[in-house]
Amino acid sequence: MAEEREEKWTYSKAGVDIDAGKALAARIAELARTTARPEVLSGVGPFAALFHFARYRDPVLVASADGVGTKLNLAALIGRYDTVGVDLVNHCVNDILTAGAEPLFFLDYIAAADLGEDEKVAVISGMAAACRDAGCALIGGETADMPDVYRPNAFDLVGFIVGVVERDRVINGAGIKDGDAILGIASNGLHTNGYSLARRVFRIGTGDDLQTERKRLYRTYPELGLTLGEALLVPHRSYYHEVRPLLPYLRGIAHITGGGLIDNVPRILPEGLAASFRRGSWPVPPIFTLIQRNGNVAEDEMYRVFNMGLGMVLVCAPGDVDEVKSLLPEVMLVGQVIRAKDERVILV
Q1: Residue pair 236/312 in contact by the 8 Å Cβ criterion
Q2: Which residues make beta-bridge pairs with 160?
């Protein structure tokens, strides 16, 4: 009996389409060009991007990397991909802003099993829009097709940012003192953190059929004024343009991400000092109240998972509060730095 001929395999048949990748790269390059700064010598295309670093006296490079987390699951479920690209860039811009840095360039990493070309372009178009807004060049990245690593319809998204600040203008919290004022700037929702808890509360991505889960996201809640999905996919706010004029007056900046107020604010406080926040001195968006009520989540847990309405926390000398508020009227006085032995964040 003749031996059966073995099946012929190609890379495309194995789940990776080289021709599709080349077509995608061309579309990405076009989007990246819309974010170019004069310092970009070579962007998307070559093996490495080139950026001419100049015009600084004593520069300190400031770098950060982050992702969007399980907010991606919601985007995939309802087919809305552009907002998570905005989320990624704005999160990273805010992170380096805490050191007083100007964003220079951004790189991304998208990995998936079967994410389509149009969906990938939608993600990157969101990134490009956010980069343009921040004056940050989208200079390169990687799009990886990884069948058997990611499940169908799932993808991951990671961003890498590099910024710069003059050494004598670095903000690191070292100058924060007892009695300093704590100011807050409002968030516009969950930003990019706490989605694993929020999804459990609303039973999204918990094993039900996709149509049932989509219906839950399309439900309208009166207190939100929009659907649950719309509320949960509001893009992470960027604070760069609002905070930049305030930098000369600030002693510390905390970006309220995973860990909420409880874990993020202590990262900028010198030893022996704590942040005392006055509850009720800022509005808590209704999405957080809805999560707490529907999930029977303890208040302490809410404050260590979510931003609870404060996306950025600023610290300045008491005598500079009026000047900061005149430059940015939306800033709210929400607390004070105090001496404390054990606790680092106190909610009163």
Answers
A1: no
A2: 65, 107
Q: Which two tokens stand for residue 278?
A: 């006055």
Going from the C-alpha of 290 to that of each of 149, 234, 347, the distances in angstroms are 35, 16, 21
Integer Cα distance of 296 and 302 in angstroms: 10
Helix ranges (H only) for 135-256 are 195-201, 210-217, 228-232, 240-243
At residue 265, the pLDDT reads 96
What amino acid occupies position 1?
M
- DSSP label at residue 144: E
Q: How far is CA 83 from the centre of its chain?
A: 11
Its pTM surpasses 0.70: yes
Count of beta carbons in the 10 Å neighbourhood of residue 227: 16
Give the integer Cα–Cα distance in Å for 319 and 328.
Answer: 16
301's tokens:
């847990």
Q: Which of 40-49, 249-258, 316-325 has the lowest mean pLDDT?
A: 40-49
User: What is the band of 208 on the pLDDT scale with cuts at 50, 70, 90?
Assistant: confident
For 158, the token pair is 């990671």
Q: Which of 166, 96, 156 is nearest to 120 (CA)?
A: 156
* Amino acid sitting at position 174: A
The rounded distance, in Å, linking the Cα atoms of 60 and 172 is: 13
Kind of pairing between the strands at 273-277 and 345-347:
parallel
Which three-class secondary structure state does DSSP give residue 251? strand
Asked if 111 contacts 120 with a C-beta cutoff of 8 angstroms, the reply is: no
Q: How far out from the chain centre does Cα 138 lie? A: 16
CA distance 239 to 33: 24
So what's the pLDDT on residue 5? 65
Give pLDDT tens digits for 87-115. Answer: 999 999 999 999 999 999 999 999 998 89
